[in-house]
Amino acid sequence: MTLFILTVLIGFVAGLRAMSAPAAVALGAYLGWLPVSGTWASFMGHWLALAIFAILALVEFVTDQLPGTPSRKVPQQFGARIISGGFSGAIIGTVSGSLAVGLMGGVIGAVLGTLGGYEARKRLVAAIGGQDLPIALLEDAVAVILALWVVSSVL
Question: At 55, which helix (H) or strand (E)?
Fold first, then answer.
């Protein structure tokens, strides 16, 4: 799989769940799937980075289910997803030889994931009679599985 496609996919994950992408990248770095040692991203291989991003991802899974959570398309949420996707893509790009391609792919993927995830969730919720929780949990599962697949496929 090409670097650009993998970074678009990790960005897409960030568009679905902002903290899932960096949590998966931190896990990949910690397990040695992403050789970040000696790069600007070496901190991602530390257990503390993994713990912080994993906790943030878990908090996001919970808060996404709350009725007062703002839309992923409001500027703060959208911006966080773009930053997360770009950051995660840049790390994958760094270990694969092109930080710029990784950053660009991550940002593009985050935009696609944010807008596409919103539309898909809205339509699927409508299709099952307005019940959001099953679709939100499905989206969580897609984000986690896709993120783990991407980081395990980089090298």
Answer: helix 47-64
Q: What is the distance between the alpha carbons of residues 152 and 155, in angstroms, rounded to a whole number?
A: 8
Residue 66, in any domain of the structure: no
Q: How far is 61 from 147, CA to CA, in rounded Å?
A: 14
- Residues 24-55 pLDDT 10s: 999 999 999 999 999 999 999 999 999 999 99
Q: What is the pLDDT of residues 97-135, one digit of tens each?
A: 999 999 999 999 999 999 999 999 999 999 999 888 999
In the chain, the number of structural domains is 1
Integer Cα distance of 142 and 121 in angstroms = 12
Give the distance from CA 73 to its chain's centroid: 16
Distance of CA 56 to the CA centre of its chain: 12
Q: How far apart are CA 126 and CA 29, in angstroms?
A: 39
User: Is residue 155 situated within a structural domain?
Assistant: no
